[in-house]
Structure formats: structure tokens, C-alpha cells
Amino acid sequence: MVPLQLPQRSKVFMDVVVVESPAKAKTINKYLGSGYTVLASFGHVRDLPAKDGSVRPDEDFAMSWQVSERAAPRISEIAKALKGARHLYLATDPDREGEAISWHVEQVLRERGALKDVDVKRVVFHEVTRSAVLDAVRNPRELNDELIQAYFARRALDYLVGFTLSPVLWRKLPGSKSAGRVQSVALRLICERELEIEVFDPEEYWTVDVEFATPRDQKFMARLTHLDGKKLEKLSLGDKDKAATAVAALEAGRFSIASVEKKQVKRNPYAPFTTSTLQQEASRKLRFAASQTMRLAQQLYEGINLGGESVGLITYMRTDSVNLSREAIDGCRTLIQRKYGPQYLPAKPRIYKTKAKNAQEAHEAIRPTDLMRQPRDVAKYLNSDQLRLYKLIWKRTVASEMESARLDQVVVRIEAGDRRTELRASGSVVAFDGFLAVYQEGSDDNGPNAQTGESGEDRRLPAMDQGEALTRGGITPEQHFTQPPPRYTEASLVKKLEELGIGRPSTYASIIQVLQDRDYVKLDARRFVPEDRGRVVTTFLNNFFKRYVEYDFTADLEDKLDEISNGTIAWKDVLRDFWRGFSAAIDGTKDLTITQVIDALDEALGPHFFPRVEGQPDPRKCTSCEDGRLGLKLGKFGAFIGCSNYPDCRYTRPLTVANGKNGEAGANGATRELGSHPETGQPVSVRTGPYGPYVQLGSADDEEKPKRIALPKSLPPETVAFELACKLLALPRDVGRHPESGKAIKAGIGRYGPYVQHEKAYKSLETTDDVLTIGLNRAVDLLAQPNKGRGGNGGNTKRLGEHPDDGKVVSAGIGRYGPYVRHGRVFASLPKDTGVEEVTLEQAVALIAAKAAKAKGGAAKKTAKAGKTTKKTAKPRKTTRKSPGKSAKTKDAAGPAAE
Questions:
Q1: What is the CATH number of the domain that holds 631?
Q2: pLDDT of 479-502, one tens digit each?
Q3: What residues contact residue 590 under an 8 Å CB cut-off, 6+ apart?
């Protein structure tokens, strides 16, 4: 193999390489050697100032750029290093954003006169490995004008939407914070899903399962599919009486096997990860937020110290491509042959094609840089979260090149002698696990079916032959209710945005975070619930800027932005077409009155904030003046609910759903009676109180206080049936005996949700656990897990060493407010440019000392102030009541969101 030759350099002066992050700079400097100076830009060095006029449509979309205060020292450092250098290599990330950062760096340096006689080149590598970096420097290219123009267009669009539409919101919709080109569309998705859930009317239906035994006394379950010769649809057995009729028909029948259908099916492996699919799988399997996934992936990409040398463990993590390089495919096939055997290796390599629109095919999929570097080999160098993400990427990549799994599927049709009823049983068995030996999408790697590929529905059936007589066992009718569509999780929202072609996967994490930071949505049980403020903003945009929150319009705009990067359309033409219609829509709101806004919002949101319940008073009726009508109002600090008789009636309440008596928010809501308890005869009901929905046994008229059990967040109250309510009211239940202590383990629902208990130890259940069905093994496993550490990071901290003063441990971790270092009871936050993996013991000791001194000084000042006031005779002070409007700001200091 011919060794890589780097470009000839001056023997006196060093050439300069600019990357984005300091961690990557250290790694690359080691690869290139002493003849190069590698410096970090720390991301973008310039941006559009957050003020009017930064993008000027009347001047053919001229743009003003400003070097940030944070970046100014970096630019000076780069300019100083360039004195006498022959070459400047711009090695920022290999995407549109990275191309833009390189352009900005070059432009600022040219304006400063720092590039005289310096040859500027762009180098690109998709993995931080020695061979990739050396090869990139040996083969530089020019900056890509099309990618830079696509960045101009995207940045200008985001600015024009954010800084033109947000002020309209501030004027016409007090209390709102911002609107963004993609952010507003994502918010609309969440709000519309919530509306679907609210208007959903659950329908009752029943299923009937029957236990059968073969002549060899092997038992299995089958479900009723036909009654009186007719196929049963999902809602055919719509009530208890119809289910009873079906049970009676089954009790009268004699059953035999009508047919046994067997076939083998293949299940193919999944493609390697893209940015979007990595975020989705990390959310489902690892419970990582999108922002956490991207942060950890960035660390793995930029480099991890493996015993003295920093090495990038994965390829670039912002990509839409599922392609693997020839080198990666060969590495996968070699590893599969060695580790799993020839039966797991397909005859030909698998080649994947990207289906998503706007894909950047020049990139590779996200994969390990070296497939032979297995998770166990790097485990000691990674923290637990880094290891879990690396293991996920490694498994997905290896599995993508493995043989398909083969499953034997069996469908058994059972008939009664009189042919009134027909039942079916189905099952599947993994004949050959193939890629399932390594990876199964969407399931927990530690789950019981991680290696077998079997689920609760894919169960093994006993051997049966056509014509065999069966012995009928128990018949189980079960009540169900149709379920509303589920709220979006981070994973499903990312998937939906990608399906619609809206936004870019690399920006989804920041978009999701902005929606939460603006208090437009909240995460509840890992699902998005729109806040009332978010619903008001979405309704306003739907009424007055409908075109600009339409899914097709936003997706079409994304297509045009990608056409710019392909060089098929001029970027300013796209901006002109957009601005022509958008500016007209903005102008159309100038004469819009607050009354018009209120009327539109009140009509659209009335069913949400004033739901009508049969048997309850009109929720619009004012509870103060009786003849007034409640409706949405807009005040200085946002929307609220008030009376139409203002100012004679000054009744107001916060913008919350009226779910109580006489329309009061927060009081007990409407009651749904379910039936009488089979043991006590007391009424069982579903109710809503100030702390949420619950089931109740008994009534307020009883001598004893009614028993109440809060509903888990994942269980909508409208779907709770009688049997389920009785099971909940029976909590806490015995799960079993702990294998070590022999004492009982119980499962119940408490103040903080579902839990398991053993003696004095309590552990909350995860969202995938069911308090009614959790078994002994799972309960013991939960109880054995360590308690959460500070900030809820699972107790995962990094030991830095012993404090020089007292020998106690100094550690670093990530808590609720970001990365920190700890010594005893003293916690000190890390600077923004320092991570947990980078902080040293010496830095930690200094930060802890500064924090301790500050705390001590504050306490001393407080004590001195208290002592000083006790020596003086207290004088009566004149108090002035502040106006409620002068202590709060109505606009978000951060300004409108970029997207």
C-alpha cells in the first residue's frame, strides 16, 4: 500500500487548519503533526444581527453579517497563526452548515487582510480517523458555491419569517413569544393531534377468546372470527349482550381443525442509521431525547481517547444517506464471517438506497469508523450513555449486512360442527434468526425477546393436523374501547416531519427544544402535549397565515432549497417568490383589530376551553354575574378567560379548560359511572379532580371516605372500562416474594405514579411497564437498579480523583442544569466550552474552591446585613404598590426563533 503524502509545506512556517470544535482540533493536530496548526472556530463565527434590516428584500436581499463577541478572539487567533503560512485548510463539518462556516471564516479573514499570499482550500472528511484526515488534506477542493447559496437562502428565509412574523404575534397576540418557518409547522402537528384526541368518541367492542386442547393435551388460545356464518368486524360485538350471544354459541359447539396453513417468510434487516432514524431508535430503545442523542453522537464523532490516542468512533452524524462505503461493507462482511459464521453472511453485499426526499447522497450513513472495534473493546473508555449509543450504531450497522431472518408462520382455522362459529389461532417461530441475532428495531436489547425475535402475538403453536377434534376449555369475553390516535413522541414527531419533507433531520432536535423553551408544548410521559399558549398561537397562524403553516407549502419550499444546493435554481428567485406572498400576508394584518383576533380565536378554541358535558351547566355562563358569557380575552401578558360584561363584571380566570362545577377550572369534573363493584356493591366511577383523572369506589355520601386511585398518565380517562377500573381499585397488588429476602413485593400507584415496593424501597415504573401486569423478574430488576443521581442522570458520574485538602472524591456529571463538578456537598457548574469528558481534577478543584468562597462570602454578607439592621430602630417605610405590568417583559429576550 502506497503511504499517503501530505502537501509540501514551508520548513519555517506552519500551515493552518480550521475545524469547528476544540476536541476535533486536538485529535487532528496529532494526525497531521508538527507542521500544522489546527484551530477551532467553535461553530459559526458570523450571523445575521438580531435586528430589523439584517436581510433587506428591497436591496435584492442584501444581508448584513456580524462577527459574534464569542468568535472575535478565535478569528484573531487564526489570523495570527496565518502570518507567513502558505495554506489555509478549511476543514469544517461536511454539510451545508459546515460549508457556510468555512465561507464565513474566509470572508472575515480576507476583510482583515490576513490571507495575502495564502492559498485557501476546503477539505472534507466524514470520519475523524488518521487515514481519512490525511487523505482529505492531500485532496483539497474549492468551496462549493451552490451549498453556500443554499445556506444564504435558508438563513434569509428563517430570518424573514422569524423577524417579520414574530412582531405581528407580539402586537396582535400578547403573551406569545415567536414563530418560525419549521417550528410553527411542528407545533401545528402537535396541536392537531391533540384536537383529534379530544373529539375522539370511543366505541365499545368485545373479543372472545377460547382455550383449546389437542388430542395430545397441548393447550393454545384461539379467537372468534365468524358468528352465524358471518365474518366479525372489529366492532361487530358492540356490547355485553352480543358478546354473551357469541359465548352461548361457542358453548354449544363441538370443534375440530378445519385447516392448517404453514408458510415461511423472510424478514430483511434494516438500513444503517441516518440522522433521523438514529434519533428515533435512540428515543425508543434508549429513552434519549433528540438533543441528547446528537450531543453524544458529536462526542463519538469528534474523538474519544483510547489509551493515549483520540479516535473518532463513528462517521459524521448529520446525514440523510443510508449508503455504506465499500470499505465499511467489507469490514462488516469480514466481522460477520468471523464472529457469527458463514450462515449469517449473504451471498452478495446489501446495497441500500435512500428513499427520503432531499437526501444528501454524498454522505455515508452513520456507522462505526472501524467495525472491528466492538463495543466491549471501547467500554472502559466511554461513559454509560456514550457506550449505549455506540453499541446501538455498531449493532445496526453489522445487522444491515447480515442474512435475512426466516420465520415459520402457522394459521390454524377452527370450526364448530354446526358451522355457526369459526375461530383462528396464529403463531410464528423463528426458524433462522439471521440479523435478529444482533439487532431488532424498536425493542429493548435487554428484553426477553431481543434475541428470538418473538413477541406476545408471535407465539409458538402445538403441532396440529386438519380434521383433528379439539377439546374446548374456558371461554373469555373481554371488553375493549377504540383508542384515540396517540400523542407524538420525539421519535414519532421526527418521523412525521421527515415523511412530510419538512425541515432537516439535523435541525429537528433544536426545533423540538425551542417549542418546549417557548412553553408552547410540554413532554408528559414522553409524549408532547400542547400548552394553551401553543394552541392559541397555532390557531392564530391557521386563521391569518394559513398558507405558511401548510405542510405541502413548507415541504415544497424545502425542495426548492435543495434545488439551490444542486445548482438547478437561483437562490434569489426562491426568496423573491416567497417574499412576494409573505409580505402581502403581513401587510394584510396591519388593519387587523384585537376584536377580530379574539373573535377568530374564541370561535376556533371554544370547544376546547368550554367543553359541553351532558347534565352540566353551560360552561360559557359566567359564574359571577350569571347573565354574562365567558370567552377568550387578550391582555398585556397573554390570553385569559373573562366575562362579556366587563367592566361591570371583572370575573377572570387563567386560560385553562373548564372542567368543573359551574365551569370553574380545576374543580372536580364530570363523572362517568361505570357500574357497581362485584364485591362491595358500591358505585365505580371515573372522575377528574384538580390533580388529574382518577377512578373512585363509593360516593361522598358514604360514611367512609371513597377509595381513589389516580390514573397513569398514559391512560386516557375516556378509555377506562369497568373491569379495568376494578383492577386499578384493587391496587396495591402482590407481585411475589423477593428471592433474597423472601418478603413481599407490591405494585401500586402513588403520588408520583406507578411504582413497585419492597420493604422501604420504592422504584417508579418505566413508561413501558404496566402496573397491573408487571411480573416478579421485572420488579426485582427495577428494585436492583441504582437510585437516580443529581439531576436525574441515573447516578452516572465520572470520578476525577481525590481532593488535595481532604482526600474526598471529586467527580463530574451532568445534572438538571448542565455539566458540573462535585466535592462533598459543593456543586460547581462547568464553563460552557468545557464538557464532563474534558474537565481535569485541577480545573475541578479550582471551580469548587471558587464556588465555596462565593457561597461563604454570600452567607457572611447576609449575616452582616442582618446584624446591621438589628442595631437601628426600625422606621416605618412608605410602601408603593407596583403596577402589575411593570415587573415583567412581554417579549422574549432571545428574540424570534431561527426556524
A1: 3.30.65
A2: 888 888 999 988 899 889 988 888
A3: none
Q: State which residues form the domain around 526.
A: 152-200+489-587
Count of structural domains, the chain: 6
Among residues 316, 340, 548, 755, the one annotated as catalytic is 316
Q: Are residues 128 and 165 in the same domain?
A: no
Whether residue 848 contacts residue 821, with contact meaning beta carbons closer than 8 Å, is answered with: yes
DSSP string, 157-168: HHHHHHHHHHHH
Q: Could you tell me if 40 and 93 are in contact, meaning their C-beta atoms sit under 8 angstroms apart?
A: no
CA distances from 485 to 185, 202, 526, 587 (A): 19, 11, 15, 38
Per the annotation, the verdict on 316 as an active-site residue is: yes
SS3 sequence of 394-436 = HHHHHHHCCCCEEEEEEEEEEEECCCCEEEEEEEEEEEECHHH
Close Cβ partners of 709 (under 8 Å, ≥ 6 residues apart): 694, 695, 728, 729, 731, 749
Q: Which three cell numbers stand for residue 394?
A: 455498531
Sign of CA dihedral 72, 78, 80, 84: negative
Q: Dump pLDDT digits (tens) for 69-95.
A: 888 899 999 999 998 889 999 999 888
332 & 298 share domain: yes
Residue from 183, 232, 174 nearest 208 by CA: 232
Phi and psi at 809, nearest 5°, equal -70, 140
Copy the grid coordinates of residue 389.
449509543
Name the pTM for this structure.
0.67
Predicted pLDDT of residue 137: 92
Task: Check: CB of residue 364 under 8 Å from CB of residue 315.
Answer: yes
User: How far is Cα 842 from Cα 802, in angstroms, rounded to an integer?
Assistant: 10
Edge-to-edge strands of the sheet including 638-643?
630-635, 638-643, 652-653
Contact 250, 224 (CB under 8 A): yes
Of 780, 769, 783, the closest CA to residue 736 belongs to 780
